[in-house]
Design goal:
The chain has 365 residues and is of the alpha/beta class. The chain is built from eleven helices and twelve strands. A ten-stranded mixed sheet has the order 2-1-3-12-11-4-5-10-8-9, sandwiched between helices. Helix 7 packs parallel to helix 8. The longest helix has 19 residues. The protein is globular, with a radius of gyration of 20 Å. The structure holds nicotinamide-adenine-dinucleotide. The site of nicotinamide-adenine-dinucleotide (NAD) has 23 residues, from loops.
């Protein structure tokens, strides 16, 4: 297996190495051979190679099975064409159309809700996101000083692809899928999304399918998130609702993510580059580690590699043990551990669990 390592910016340099550390430990314990391929991206690439997304990086990613991308701090990039935000380009270039974002609560962590275990599947390359919904230029324009127009792109193919990914995920979990939209107002855009979801619901009679208007869903998510299993929605709704879901279970440090496409997948946490805590050694590595875990699980399923699935399951069990025992947790989780101490604890737990041959529960991520 060839996996790329792209640190990104700010806390990316702290959390990505912890993800690699944990994946290495789990792979060693289960006999998965991984070749790690570090690559430049972001601010460091701009300073050394003159661009935030070197052509060589884009080209070499093609030959990999997947990669880990740290958060990108593009808000502070200089306003120059070579200082673009690279991750929308990667999502589009590799057709990483499904952004899979779990939110899970843990009894030993304080959170707004307990008993939450849901996954938001967000369409990743269309919608209102102006940096990826046009071939050139921007999906936003200002014809006069008084008027700004934002274009939202919805295609049947895009809706059907993300809906199928969500139905498949629901089938491997608690078999409940909720499609979130607002077709009462966006009759054509959300209407098309809903039509494609309904068509697929017929193909998945074993999955209980329902729909919710986005405003109602936002309220229900805050009040009773336990009622949801898998949720599928369009780009911008998914972006907002997945941060909301993260807030219900303990914050952005607990929000992993995977951008998946037909041939590649990219582990990418929901959080940004957190410049306010960069360099302090206190960033929570959970989101990045569990994004890497999702990548390993995705690759294991795709390549029919049971050892890789076992390695992913091992990481999940190790993380659960570390959290349950509150070992080396970072300050955002109420602990006093450092980023690397928490990474060490998860890697050591993975190695120890494998040695003890503790029966592992299959994960559905
Ligand atoms: P942010 O997610 O970086 O930070 C929001 C808050 O959450 C901050 O207080 C931060 O300290 C905290 N936080 C985030 N991740 C954490 C972690 N792992 N452990 C502990 N605390 C954590 O959002 P922001 O401050 O709005 O954006 C900072 C930069 O990141 C900007 O340049 C923004 O454009 C970029 N960004 C990138 C991505 C991405 O690469 N996927 C996503 C969102 C924002």
């Amino acid at each position: 297996m060839k996996i790329g390592v792209l640190n990104g910016d700010d806390i990316g340099h702290e959390v990505v190495p912890e993800a690699v550390k944990v994946l290495r430990a789990a792979a060693a314990a289960t006999g998965v051979a991984i070749e790690w391929v570090p690559m430049p991206i972001g601010r460091q690439a701009l300073d050394t190679l003159g661009t935030t997304l070197p052509a060589d990086t884009l080209q070499r990613l093609e030959a990999l099975d997947g990669w880990i991308l740290g958060p990108i701090g593009h808000m502070t990039y200089p306003k120059r064409p070579e200082a673009i935000n690279p991750h929308p380009i990667l999502r589009k270039h590799f057709d990483l159309f499904a952004n899979i974002r779990p939110a899970k609560s843990y009894p030993s962590l304080s959170s707004v809700h307990q008993g939450v275990d849901l996954v938001i599947v967000r369409e990743n390359n269309e919608g209102f996101q102006p940096d990826r919904n046009v071939v050139a230029g921007s999906g936003e324009f200002r014809p006069t000083e008084e008027v700004t127009i934002s274009v939202r792109v919805i295609t049947r193919t895009g809706c059907a692809k993300v809906a199928r990914a969500a139905f498949e995920l629901a089938r491997s979990r608690r078999k409940h899928l909720t499609a979130v939209h607002k077709d009462t107002v966006f009759k054509l855009g959300c209407g098309m999304f809903a039509e494609e979801c309904r068509k697929l619901a017929v193909e998945y009679p074993d999955v209980a399918y329902d729909e919710s208007m986005v405003d109602t869903f936002a309220m229900r998510l805050v009040m009773t998130p336990q009622r949801y299993d898998v949720v599928v929605t369009t780009n911008m709704f998914g972006d907002i609702l997945s941060d909301e879901a993260a807030g219900l279970v303990g914050g952005l440090g607990l929000a992993p993510g995977l951008c998946a496409g037909p041939r590649h997948a990219m582990a990418q946490a929901t959080h940004g580059s957190a410049p306010d805590i960069a360099g302090c050694g206190i960033a929570n590595p959970y989101a990045m580690i569990m994004s890497g875990q999702m990548l390993l699980h995705w690759l294991g399923r795709r390549q029919q590699n049971p050892a890789a699935i076992e390695a992913a399951t091992l990481i999940e069990a190790a993380m659960e043990q570390v959290i349950a025992q509150r070992r080396a947790l970072t300050p955002d989780l109420g602990g006093s551990g450092s980023t690397s101490a928490m990474g060490d604890a998860v890697a050591e737990a993975a190695t120890a669990l494998a040695a003890e041959r503790v029966p592992l529960q299959r994960t559905a991520r």
